[in-house]
Write a structure and sequence with these properties.
396 residues, alpha/beta, Rossmann fold, Arc Repressor Mutant, subunit A, four-stranded parallel beta sheet, two-stranded antiparallel sheet, 6 strands, elongated
């Protein structure tokens, strides 16, 4: 790979173009050896954005030559744009700025007045100090060569250090991978041991589990018989809004009938708290839902199903829950309680053009103590599972 040359930028006044060209000629040896490659604004092609081109090369130059003369000092563009940026890059160590004194001018009290200038002793190129201009230009070229060699040596040292750092990082990465592989083998070994322990415990637990399953089946049968009895009682009563706890569902019915889904959702939590005698707590827990009166649960669900034309309701949500195999996150995605894998605040739920099963929401999830209705809302898996289990028990 060929060695990259240093980028040299000429900052000058166009009135000094002849002197710039003569200096460029004296730098030809450095250019042929690829020590430097120079740029000035006369290389801008027709149709190109000259300001962009100048800024681009000024911002990437390794060496910036300020060709100082009265014309240069008087140039607003040289002074306000090029000098300011050059000094800024010089002070941060990004570039080396070298004033080259073309003609005699008062330049000591300038932003670059403290910089070492060329030619020797800052004697202007156009002056009686030199036997001829070539002697001055040669002195400038020698000075630039010394700076370029110093910069190239520093660059080579930086590249060497970077290569050493890269090699060290690669070695550290290889060591890290070996450690991870060892840790992974250890983890797999521990998992295998844990699996063996679990199989042993499972073999011991199986008889007790069978006894518990039989007891659960008996309990479910009793609850089913109770639910069937309640359903028969409900069918035989003249009351179209039955309740085991004397809860008045008139307001909920009227809100649903009017399509006021958000208010109806809030009212659903109100009546569910009353049906479970938890108005003081202000939130539902798994126990209260697990023992929720089937008559009241059926009344609430039928009102939602009826006035949403089968779009909302606990029974609708249960069918969606079953369709996703009881996957909590997939269920949240389907009813749009979860967007982009994040559970959304209750305040961001939609109550118009909502997806099937989106409501009810307040009564579906329960609340933790101390969290208000306007706080961040996040469903609870345990509460959802208990709710749908109760819906199944009550045969909604």
């Amino acid at each position: 790979m060929p060695e990259e040359s240093l980028q040299l930028f000429f900052s000058y006044s166009h009135k000094d173009e002849a002197l710039r060209d003569e200096l460029a000629n004296h730098l030809s040896t450095l250019k042929r050896k690829r020590v430097i490659s120079s740029w000035h604004d006369r290389r801008i092609l027709p149709g190109e954005d000259w300001d962009h081109q100048i800024n681009d090369h000024l911002n990437t130059a390794d060496i910036i030559l300020l060709l100082v003369s009265s014309n240069f000092i008087a140039s607003d563009y040289c002074w306000d744009i090029e000098v300011e940026k050059a000094i800024e890059r010089h002070e941060t160590g990004e570039a080396c700025v070298i004033p080259v004194i073309l003609r005699s001018v008062d330049w000591k009290d300038t932003p670059f007045g403290k910089l070492q200038a060329l030619p020797k002793d800052a004697q202007p190129i156009v002056s009686r100090y030199w036997h001829n201009p070539d002697e001055a230009f040669n002195n400038v070229a020698e000075g630039i060569r010394l700076v370029a060699e110093k910069l190239k040596k520093e660059r080579e040292e930086q590249q060497k250090q970077e290569a050493e750092r890269l090699l060290l990082r690669e070695q550290q990465e290889e060591t890290r991978k070996l450690q991870e592989q060892q840790q992974e083998r250890l983890r797999l070994h521990e998992q295998q041991e844990e699996a063996d322990r679990l199989r042993t415990r499972e073999a011991e637990r199986l008889p007790r589990q069978q006894e518990q399953e039989e007891a659960d089946r008996l309990q479910r049968r009793r609850e089913q018989e109770k639910a069937d009895k309640l359903r028969l009682e409900q069918q035989s009563t003249a009351n179209d809004l039955p309740s085991e706890k004397d809860v008045d569902y008139t307001q909920l019915r009227d809100l649903l009938k009017a399509g006021n889904w958000k208010e109806a959702d809030t009212q659903t939590l109100v009546v569910m708290l009353k049906a479970t005698s938890r108005e003081q707590e202000g939130w539902l827990n798994s126990e209260s839902i697990d023992n929720f009166p089937c008559t009241d649960l059926l009344t609430i669900d039928q009102l939602w199903v009826k006035y949403s034309n089968g779009h909302f309701g606990f029974s609708v949500q249960k069918r969606i829950w079953e369709s996703v195999g009881g996957d909590y996150e997939k269920f949240g995605d389907r009813v749009e309680w979860r967007m982009n894998k994040n559970w959304i605040p209750y305040s961001d739920l939609t109550f118009a053009d909502s997806p099937q099963g989106h409501l009810p929401a307040r009564g579906s999830q329960g609340y933790l103590p101390g969290i208000g209705l306007d706080a961040w809302w996040k469903p609870g898996l345990c509460v959802v599972m208990v709710l749908f289990s109760r819906v199944e028990t009550c045969k909604l």
